[in-house]
Amino acid sequence: MMSNSEESNLKEYVGYIWIEEQPGVLLSILVGSPEEARRLLEAEHGTGHVISLWNEEDCTSPPLGALDSQRP
Prior knowledge:
- The chain has one domain (about 5-70).
- The protein has helices spanning about 5-10, 35-45, 55-60, and strands at about 10-20, 25-30, 50-55.
- The protein has 3 helices and 3 strands.
């Protein structure tokens, strides 16, 4: 069982996985990082597939420090 602090660090990553010549399969995974998501997906589906993942929160937030570099 996860502690509250572990659960609060989890993010939902969504995306697609293309296995061989099959159409892309939509997926959703709740993990702490994109690297962890890739490891879990490769453990489940094997390696060598095309995987595209993103987190909506990360997509809508500026990179860390981006706003600081715009200050005079």
